Amino acid sequence: MASSRATARQRRPPLSADESAVSAQKRAAASAAVELVHDGMRLGLGTGTTVAYLLPALAASKYEALRCVATSPATEMAARALGLRVEELDEVGELDLAIDGADQIDAQGWLIKGGGGAHTREKIVAASARRFVVIASAEKAVQTLAPPVPLELVAFAVEHALAAVGSAELRDVERSPDGGVIADYLGPVGDPRELSARLSATPGVVEHGLFAPELVSMIMIAGEGPVQRRAGGKADGPA
Ligand code: 5RP
Q1: Structural domains of the chain, with CATH
Q2: What is the per-residue pLDDT for 2?
């Protein structure tokens, strides 16, 4: 009898040509990013399907002194299953490098993250890294950012926070690992810096998914040709 895992795999519909191309691009961006990792580094691991391609490539490197910090329970579980050493950020301290995906990347280097609801931990990890590198398939690059912008809200008085944000709705997902409620801002983005400041100043908003260019060291975008590297607004440390 087939295992339940094999059965689930068989039931999954085949990827369309577009989905296969996007998956290949995610894998290419992840493979290029693995070359930035050296043994002994303290490495932040993002969350999502692009990062999922990074993990086996990292594990294949067989780095014995690599210390990883995960941005979600899903990444932590996947990384540990591959034999990677995962520790708490507070144990590791400053990170040399963090690598993560993104939902949208605009022409100025602003990101929207949090499609997986992990943006609060992702922002903390990105900010704790001397170098933060974003990996993405080509369809993530946009001229201007568009909603939704993910939010994490304090569980107390969620309706008040939603009303204060305006044009926001709860996402039908479990709470974040830190007990927060995940929602999406659906109004216009306009100037991302202004929206970022407004959301950060709204009582009850723990964190939002707008990442400023100055958090990002480099963006690696895989399209049809070689992986493109765009400098971000954060000065690179010597990682
Ligand atoms: C999760 C994230 C992810 O990085 C973002 O949603 C991109 O995901 P994927 O790599 O699956 O396209 O921010 O909170």
Answers
A1: 17-140+209-226 (3.40.50.1360), 149-207 (3.30.70.260)
A2: 38
- Kindly give the number of the ligand 1 atom that is closest to the alpha carbon of 50: 10
pLDDT digits (tens, 9 = 90+) for 150-189: 999 999 999 999 999 999 999 998 999 999 999 999 999 9
Ligand 1 atom closest to residue 137's alpha carbon, by position in its atom list? 12
Catalytic-labelled residue, pool 19, 64, 87, 122: 122
Instruction: Determine phi and psi for 172, rounding to 5 degrees.
Output: -85, 65
Per-residue pLDDT tens over the stretch 30-78: 999 999 999 999 999 999 999 999 999 999 999 999 999 999 999 999 9
224 as an active site residue: the answer is: no
pTM value is: 0.93
For residue 103 and ligand 1, the question of a CB distance below 6 A is answered with: yes
Task: Measure 1 CA to ligand 1 centroid, in angstroms.
Answer: 35
d(CA 187, CA 164): 12
CA 112–ligand 1 middle distance (angstroms): 9
Tell me the two tokens of residue 149. 């912008």
Judged by phi (left if over 0) then psi (alpha if -120 to 50, else beta), residue 81 lies in alpha
CA of 8 to the centre of ligand 1 (A): 23
CB atoms within 10 A of CB 5: 8
Instruction: Report d(CA 65, CA 224) in Å as an integer.
Output: 34
- Mean pLDDT, rounded, of the chain: 94
Cα separation, 76 vs 57, in Å, equals: 15
